[in-house]
Amino acid sequence: xxxxxxxxxxxxxxxxxxxxxxxxxxxxxxxxxxxxxxxxxxxxxxxxxxxxxxxxxxxxxxxxxxxxxxxxxxxxxxxxxxxxxxxxxxxxxxxxxxxxxxxxxxxxxxxxxxxxxxxxxxxxxxxxxxxxxxxxxxxxxxxxxxxxxxxxxxxxxxxxxxxxxxxxxxxxxxxxxxxxxxxxxxxxxxxxxxxxxxxxxxxxxxxxxxxxxxxxxxxxxxxxxxxxxxxxxxxxxxxxxxxxxxxxxxxxxxxxxxxxxxxxxxxxxxxxxxxxxxxxxxxxxxxxxxxxxxxx
Length: 296
Known about the structure:
Elements: H1 8-18, E1 28-32, H2 35-48, H3 52-55, H4 59-69, H5 75-85, E2 89-93, H6 104-112, H7 132-144, H8 149-165, H9 179-200, H10 206-217, H11 233-249, H12 257-270, H13 280-295
Parallel strand pairs: 1-2
Helix pairs in contact: 7-11, 8-12, 9-10
């Protein structure tokens, strides 16, 4: 995901220049999510990490914005990667039934290591999608943050990680398209889906079938994007209170909050205790700089 928006020719130049000794051994494995699923997942992700436009939009408005910008027209971008890397570029469809063992993790390992037999231990699912109710809770919080993009992102990830460790809520709604929007998406992206199937998937209609499946599964009416339509007045008041408090705490610029939240995520994965003073290193660094300035 970190290189998704990097032009293929730029990335190829970087690998040739800085990894010259092994550039010919580099392989690129990409995954493409079907158009309709990409729109819903991107809307949810950008709401989670507090992208201002997503916080002000519903799914219809978000899809219309992406249609205007052409962000989810795939063929030119993936063709550029194939032209840059040739046979060293592999594109896989993010379609469950088309993946090895119906798992993107298993699929990646399978193709990255030449089909070697392997077994993944552990059963905990990672990066599960948030339900609409939890997205609305995050939306309330993100609306109260006057924070830069990186801090909003880290806050969204951390809260989503904590939600994933909790028991599921009593009411859980999956984000979904409605019929009219699904048909509009099908109309907009069918030509690109057909071209992708022909160019990258040997003519198998994977991307085209997913567009039709999105129409078949769509809801009759649009889902609301208003938190108050999912959460009780009491919970809305509590969320408003806690969001204001969290927003105030994050205004303390003596702490490098993005670094702290990222480090906390890593420590929790490794089972290590949190630092007693998350600002310790930063304060020492400032004192050292002052002493160095005095010596000058």
